[in-house]
Structure formats: C-alpha cells, structure tokens
Amino acid sequence: MGLNGLKDMQHSRPMIDHDRLFKELITTFFWEFVELFLPDLARYLDNNSIVFLDKEIFTDVTSGERHEVDILAKGKFRGSDSCFLVHCETQAQDPTRMPQRMFDYFGRLHAKFRLPVYPIVVLAHDSPASEPDCYEVKFPDLEVLRLTSGSFTCGGSTGATLCCNRTRSRPH
Questions:
Q1: Are residues 74 and 51 in contact, defined by beta-carbon separation less than 8 angstroms?
Q2: Pseudo-torsion of CA 102, 47, 56, 97, nearest 10°?
Q3: Which uninterrupted H or E stretch holds 149?
Q4: 23: buried, middle or exposed (CB in 10 Å: 19+, 13-18, 0-12)?
C-alpha cells in the first residue's frame, strides 16, 4: 500500500468525539478528579451528596446561539445542608473567549438556581498554560466584578496525555 492509500485510510476513519469522551471521563471519575486537581474543594465538598444535573441549555437571544453547559453537579458543604453547584467546562480550541463564556454561564446558573457556583475550566490543547482564567469588570477607581475559574491545561492533541498542570485558581 502506498502513501496515498494510507492517507485515504486516515480520512475514511470516523472522527473520535474527544469532547464527549473527556466529559464522560470527568463525570465518571468526578470525585477522583476533584481530589486530584482541586484538593481545597475536596476538603469541603461532601462526596456523598454529589448529584449531576441535566444539561442546562442557554440561548443567546441577541445572536440566536445555543450554549450547553458541559458538566453541572450539585453538592453539599461537608457537615451542612447548604448546597452549591460545580460547573466544569472543557475547551479544546482557542480559549481567549473562555473567561467571558464562564461569566455568562455563571450568571445564568446563579440566576436559575440561586446557589453559589464553583467554576472549573479544563483546557485540552497544546498551547502553554498562559490563557486568561479571569473575567473582570473594573474602572480606574472601582473593581466591580472578578470571576476566576479553576483552570487546568491537559496538553496533547491526541488526548493520550493524562498529566495535567494546574494553573491559577485563586483571585490575586
């Protein structure tokens, strides 16, 4: 088989839905994910209270675009009946609009559920971990808003790299 035959075989293979597989992996091993990458969260999240919520779909009425939350879980603070949401988004492409998107989701989730929202972003691409992880609204004399997400970069376009590097996750 020549080089052209190999190229034809590569193009005829079905594309693997890495995004769906990544979401299933995080959902299946959610508590292990939290323990490994978010140890502070693991200290106050009651792992026996975690419930995954149905996909939330939001429509941007100005553009007509529909957006679906990747992973949304509800849990309780340890030793309390108070609940909060854990919202996790995976991003395999250009992450420059991610902070704005996380803010939009945060606002909609908070308005709908009236619960605190813990935002997490998992960046699955090859670029260095220098992506913005914060959305800010501020003036020279006033910081109105600062939303910071827990961010992780999982490099490797093949999806075979399981070693993740934690980037900034706390406000400055």
A1: yes
A2: 20
A3: none
A4: middle
- Please report, as a single letter, which amino acid is at residue 85: L
Q: Can you tell me the distance from the alpha carbon of 26 to that of 19, in angstroms, rounded to the nearest whole number? A: 11
**How does pLDDT run across 106-117, given as a tens digit for each residue?**
998 999 999 999
d(CA 67, CA 56): 8
**Where are the chain's structural domains?**
17-166
Residue carrying structure tokens 């293979």: 13
Mode of pairing for the β-strands spanning 71-77 and 45-52: antiparallel
For 1-16, b where at least 16 C-beta lie within 10 A, e where not — what string?
eeeeeeeeeeeeeeee
Cα 161 to Cα 140: distance, rounded to the nearest angstrom: 42
Query: Could you report the per-residue pLDDT of 54-101, keeping only the tens digit for each?
Result: 877 777 777 777 888 999 999 999 999 999 999 998 877 766 778 888
